[in-house]
Design a protein that fits this description.
About 10% of the residues lie in helices and about 35% in strands. It is mainly beta. The longest helix is centred in the N-terminal third of the chain and has 10 residues, at about 40-45.
């Protein structure tokens, strides 16, 4: 198999994006969901650091560029349909690692209980003290 066209094998959506899940390598925790364009995925593979595409800002987003909460990438996987990327990462910048802009370890901190959403993870650092 020709490995030189690995980016062409990804099924990009109409906007040229692919959904990405970041999973903590050592714990298996799902940390966050984001998007990548072709350049972001290529840079992530090159730098071994998570680089996403910010749809709201229409630009590359180097995870941790403001917060210091960088994701070191150990493995990049593509699902069976070639339309979702999974990153196995180490979350840096705070112990335990903060992946969520709310100051929590994971963006998936709300759990459905009694027909309502309940926060199941504490804020590890106030977002007011994370972002410049």
């Amino acid at each position: 198999m020709d490995k030189s066209n690995w980016l062409d094998q990804v099924k990009w959506d109409a906007a040229g994006l692919v959904p990405v899940i970041a999973q903590e390598a050592h714990s298996g925790d799902v940390l966050m969901f984001a998007w990548m364009n072709r350049e972001a995925l290529a840079k992530t593979a090159e730098l071994k650091r998570a680089v996403y595409f910010s749809r709201s800002r229409s630009k590359l987003w180097f995870k941790g560029e403001e917060s210091g909460h960088v994701q070191t990438v150990h493995d990049i996987r593509l699902d069976c349909d070639n339309d979702v990327v999974l990153l196995k990462v180490t979350q840096l910048g705070h112990e335990p690692g903060i992946a969520c802009h709310t100051g929590r370890h994971s963006c998936f901190f709300q759990s459905l209980a009694d027909a309502g959403w309940v926060s199941t993870e504490p804020v590890l650092k106030d977002p007011e003290h994370i972002y410049k």
